[in-house]
Design a protein that fits this description.
61% of the residues lie in helices and 13% in strands. The protein folds into two domains: 247 residues, CorA soluble domain-like (Beta Polymerase, domain 2), CATH 3.30.460.20; 61 residues, no CATH class. It is built from seven helices and six strands. Strand 1 and strand 2 form a beta hairpin.
Length: 314
């Protein structure tokens, strides 16, 4: 579905919303009426496309593929928590390609429209940079939520209320932070490419001073976000390793206790086994021989326990 939204007197937003992928009617409409190329549409319609920024000289169109979060945060497939959206800028038109899970990004542009001045310079780029800032804010909120879940699990571990569920939760957090970090790094690359090109070192992308400052602020913000995601991921990995060490230590302690019990409980069996044989043994014919066997048993057990204590094995 394609909707045109007027941003100001000279610019329009072309909202291209698809449930899964572009249908043939929308694709033909974009090619015939808006003169976009099949290559650009293929990039914009690919749900597995990596974050990128490029310029198509044939159609004189800038293409930006950016990673945004899935609106459905409860999706069971963690790999779908981050999805690509695409912007295309051609003349005074800004195309936004989203699906059902990322269509909320349009609201960010409309929010900027209601707050920006009508005569703002480089308005399309300003709208895009503002949208980038909002997406970065979403990532920051997600990382904070992840940190809260991590702290809860860490608190349960310290109280020794660990369970298999917490192991699975930690694994999910590790997967989630990996996808978030990868998405943020891709977005960071895009912003750095735009800043490099806008400086005129590669090709010309003429931005006003205000727009360039906004871009620079967005680069700084996403660099901070990347460090935040990296720190969160490292902490979760360390907690997971610590949890594994705790579980291994508990297993070793359990095996150690069981081994000691096995050794100690085998002594009475050995002693009584000797005195149950049909052969002559010391004081076996005395009435108090059972007391003698108990004394021997206790003495051997005490010697073993003393030796284990001496070796720091208790």
């Amino acid at each position: 579905m394609i909707n045109e939204i007027v941003l100001n007197q000279t610019s329009k937003l072309i909202d291209v919303h698809s449930t899964n992928s572009l249908n043939d009617a929308d694709r033909n409409n974009l090619i015939e009426n808006y003169h976009l190329t099949n290559e650009i549409l293929d990039y914009a319609d690919d749900e597995n496309e990596r974050a990128r920024f490029e310029y198509d000289e044939i159609s004189e169109t800038y293409l930006i593929v950016y990673n945004a979060q899935n609106e459905n945060e409860q999706t069971s497939d963690i790999s779908q928590r981050v999805l690509p959206i695409s912007f295309a800028i051609k003349d005074n038109l800004m195309f936004l390609f989203t699906n059902d899970s990322t269509h909320y990004v349009k609201d960010y542009i409309l929010y900027a429209k209601s707050h920006f001045k009508e005569d703002i310079v480089d308005c399309l780029w300003e709208y895009i940079f503002n949208t980038f800032d909002q997406i970065s804010s979403d990532y920051s909120d997600q990382i904070s939520e992840t940190d809260a879940k991590r702290n809860k699990i860490q608190h349960m571990i310290r109280r020794r209320h660990s369970s298999e569920t917490q192991i699975l939760d930690l694994a999910d957090l590790q997967d989630l932070t990996t996808y978030l970090s990868t998405a943020i790094n891709g977005n960071s690359t895009v912003l750095n490419q735009i800043e490099l090109i806008s400086s005129g070192n590669v090709q010309d992308l003429h931005l006003s001073r205000t727009a360039h400052e906004h871009l620079h602020d967005s680069v700084i913000e996403i660099d901070q976000l990347r460090n935040q995601a990296s720190l969160s991921s490292d902490i979760i990995d360390r907690i997971s390793n610590t949890y594994n060490n705790i579980l291994n230590n508990r297993t070793n302690t359990t095996m150690k206790v069981l081994t000691i019990y096995t050794i100690v409980l085998s002594i009475p069996t050995i002693v009584s086994g000797f005195y149950g044989m049909n052969m002559k043994l010391p004081v076996a014919d005395q009435k108090w021989s059972w007391v003698f066997s108990l004394i021997i048993t206790i003495a051997i057990i005490l010697v073993i326990l003393w030796d284990l204590h001496r070796r720091d094995s208790l």
